[in-house]
Amino acid sequence: MTDYQSLPRAEFGFPGPLRDRLVAAVLSGAKTTTTSLAAGYRVAGEALPRPGDRSVLVDSADRPLAVLETVEVRVLPLGEVELRHAVDEGEGHTTLAAWRADHEEFWHSAEFRASLGDPEFTVDDRTEVVTERLRVLRRL
Hints:
CATH architecture: Roll
Oligomer: single chain
Number of domains: 1
Largest sheet: 5 strands, mixed
Radius of gyration: 15 Å
Low-confidence stretches: none
Strand content: 25-35%
Strand order of the largest sheet: 1-3-4-5-2
CATH class: Alpha Beta
């Protein structure tokens, strides 16, 4: 077994164009941060990430592409996310409003709401988010 095969998988979004775009941004170095909802960890029964955690970045075809390391983790209300974090997500956002609109579109999608088991789930400024700063340790 290769050393990375025992690591948890780092999956951005759901398989498809969004995931592949985010994976490409990670691999290019444009994406060094990401944001998740704390509720997603609770529903999945997963522990929150911690600095030093390592994971394997996978694409939509479930191919392992890189080993990532979590550098920083913060849990805060959505309304307190800073512009620097949004820009570092590498999706081309230059304002918090644009970043938030894209994230709300994803979090309010039928697919995401189904993953939480709540068809009416919605976010507001008080919604708890988990922000992570990541680095690519090694490409596979």
